[in-house]
Write the structure tokens for this entry.
Amino acid sequence: MRILRPILFIYLLTAAIGYAYCEQTDRVSLNSLIDEGLKNNPGIQVAYNNWKGAVHKVKQVKSLPDPKASYAHFGENIETKVGPQEANYGLSQKIPFPGKLNLKAKIQSKHADMLEEKYEAVEREVIKNIKLVYYDIFWVDKAIQITGEEKAILERLERAAQRKYESALAPQQDVIKAQVELSKLIDKLFLLKQNRKSLEAKMNSILNRPKGTELGIVDNVKTVEFKYKINELHQIAKSSEQELLIAGLNVEKTEYEESLAKMDYLPDFTF
């Protein structure tokens, strides 16, 4: 009986923890989680706003500076050729040397393109993290299912060994051995369910969900044949890697900045 008490306690504890898991009936798909992540992830929202803000600024740098208006009031009338004057009104407009505004617009445009690539890089990173956590949860769910089936089989064997021992048809050692193995499975099941809780918390963080939100049961993962060769992967990486694209855009932006710096000695006009 002393051996059975701790085993019974662990069994009841695991059953209590797993009750909520067993109650989960809602199924979630990978695509739905990706859509939710792209919509609600704060990192994506920040990167998107930075990109759009830079795009709107392109029109601003292409425009002429704001005109300036001036007004001066004289304490005494001033005699001029056209007669006495009491006040003076003025309006001026600064016009940069031709080509300067165009270069500034190109620099800002390249900056916006760089932020767009960063935005897409954040999106890809979020999608990757969602997939990794989703596949981990899928594996844990399968492990929980298989471990539960093993536990059910071992429980039947333990009961059969107990009956044989009570009937003096088997030694007590068979019962103890079955109980020890059952205890190991219960511990394993407990750890797997705790691991799933941790993965749920990680997914909630990526999706910007409230803490403690239950994920539900994930759909089955379909296997996909990997057809790419190493050379093809190298080409894909060169053409789509955000860091390389951003570096190329930064080179173009620097060239425009250099051209603009060379025009600093050219005078602007004020009318």
